């Protein structure tokens, strides 16, 4: 015997908090799908995202370091998996729907262009006259329009709740009945903060690993000092080889702990008792304490000043984005060179948007290869 979907949905009603999203109460999908025998709606969403081509390509996209420059630096894919892991931890601790938080986390960066933020800025610059480019909006285009595998429609036909989570910064947030809402679900808010926790910690880790940041520099960052002290309390004799990894572990743990306890208190104080009340709440209920927010801001400032704009990072990106520009122009001049699926969208989406969609989907290496092919064809 296996557990039926109805039983799983019932388990959620019994176990989850009253303000958690229940898969049995999902607001549905744009295209009606027959319910599955033993998978909940959010389990299906998660599977659809993991089995998409855009998800697989995250493996070849830059997080901070150009993809392939180091053997164990984070990529967009490993970043995404870390966000999903933190999301599950926080969601479970707060009695929220883990499957939903995980699905949102797995989809949150699907729209990222190659070459990290430098790539996004460049694509936005060339697309300015045609509506610009933003990776959050692009993630929605990927799951609603660009992925092609299900019969009868374009996109992955994800549930309203996952789309709501991907939309995150869009102010025109509406329920299917048209009513305007202030906030997304708590699961979506959790995935958002998990993203922040994850990049702080792994960017520090990779920056130190690469030798672009030093422990000495970090002594000016209070969060780092606290994590070092905590590591020392937990393990008096720490092998120097384990030091960095264990301090990072302590830092993540402290961030998650603050998020969970602060959010639990805010939820209690707000007295929300349903998802609807969460969505109508004037402010977000998931968040850090004031002290942690301040320290996170200091860390972010430190990372910008010493890491993201470091010549070894930003210089490489600037050079590669020039190629992005060349590839964009080449496809606009020769749209027949676009992939088959992209060419099918040309008429409806317009030339520049189709080219931007195509380039945004590329891995770093595919863009480099395309740029090399274009320059050979021209010479
Ligand atoms: Mg992210």
- For this structure, the CATH topology of the largest domain is Hypothetical protein af1432
Mean pLDDT: 92
Question: pLDDT below 50 for ≥5 consecutive residues: which ranges?
Answer: none
Give the CATH class of the largest domain: Mainly Alpha
SSE string, helices as H and strands as E: HHHHHHHHHHHHHHHHHH
Q: What structural class should be given to the helix and strand makeup?
A: mainly alpha
Q: What CATH architecture of the largest domain do you see? A: Orthogonal Bundle
Can you identify the CATH superfamily of the largest domain?
Answer: Hypothetical protein af1432
Distance between the termini: 66 Å
Total beta strand runs: 0
Question: What's the overall geometry?
Answer: globular
Question: How would you describe this structure to a colleague?
Answer:
There is one protein chain. Helices cover 64% and strands 0% of the residues. It has helices spanning 5-15, 41-50, 53-57, 76-93, 98-107, 116-127, 135-146, 160-167, 186-209, 215-218, 222-234, 240-270, 275-280, 290-308, 311-333, 340-349, 351-361, 364-378. With 379 residues, the chain is mostly helical. The protein is globular and about 65 Å long. It contains 18 helices and no strands. The chain has 2 domains: 5-20 and 40-314, Hypothetical protein af1432 (Orthogonal Bundle); 315-378, no CATH class. The structure holds magnesium ion (MG). Magnesium ion binds next to helix 4.
């Amino acid at each position: 015997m296996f557990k039926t979907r109805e039983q799983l949905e019932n388990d959620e009603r019994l176990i989850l908090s009253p303000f958690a999203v229940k898969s049995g109460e999902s607001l549905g999908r744009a295209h009606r799908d027959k319910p599955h025998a033993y998978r909940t709606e959010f389990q299906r969403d998660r599977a659809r995202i993991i089995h998409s081509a855009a998800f697989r390509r995250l493996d070849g996209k830059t997080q901070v370091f150009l993809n392939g420059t180091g053997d164990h630096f984070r990529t967009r894919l490993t970043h995404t998996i870390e966000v999903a892991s933190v999301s599950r931890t926080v969601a479970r601790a707060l009695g929220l729907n883990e499957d939903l938080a995980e699905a949102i986390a797995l989809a949150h960066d699907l729209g990222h262009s190659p070459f990290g933020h430098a790539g996004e800025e460049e694509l936005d610059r060339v697309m300015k006259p045609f509506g610009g480019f933003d990776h959050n909006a692009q993630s929605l285009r990927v799951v609603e329009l660009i992925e092609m595998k299900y019969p009868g429609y374009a996109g992955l036909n994800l549930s309203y709740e996952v789309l709501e989570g991907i939309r995150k910064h869009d102010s025109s947030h509406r329920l299917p009945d048209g009513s305007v809402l202030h906030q997304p679900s708590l699961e979506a808010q959790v995935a958002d903060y998990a993203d922040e926790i994850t990049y702080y910690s792994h960017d520090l880790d990779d920056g130190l690993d690469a030798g672009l940041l030093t422990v000495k520099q970090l002594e000016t960052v209070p969060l780092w000092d606290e994590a070092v002290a905590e590591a020392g309390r937990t393990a008096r004799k720490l092998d120097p080889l384990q030091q960095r990894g264990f301090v990072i572990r302590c830092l993540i743990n402290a961030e998650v702990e603050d998020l969970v306890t602060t959010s639990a208190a805010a939820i209690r104080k707000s007295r929300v008792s349903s998802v609807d009340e969460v969505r109508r709440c004037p402010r977000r209920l998931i968040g850090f304490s004031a002290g942690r927010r301040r320290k996170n801001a200091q860390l972010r400032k430190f990372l910008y000043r010493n890491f993201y704009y470091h010549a070894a990072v930003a210089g490489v990106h600037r050079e590669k984005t020039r190629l992005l520009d060349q590839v964009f122009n080449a496809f606009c001049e020769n749209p027949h060179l676009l992939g088959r699926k992209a060419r099918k969208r040309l008429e409806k989406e317009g030339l520049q948007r189709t080219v931007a969609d195509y380039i945004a989907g590329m891995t770093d290496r595919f863009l480099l290869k395309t740029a090399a092919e274009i320059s050979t064809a021209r010479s």
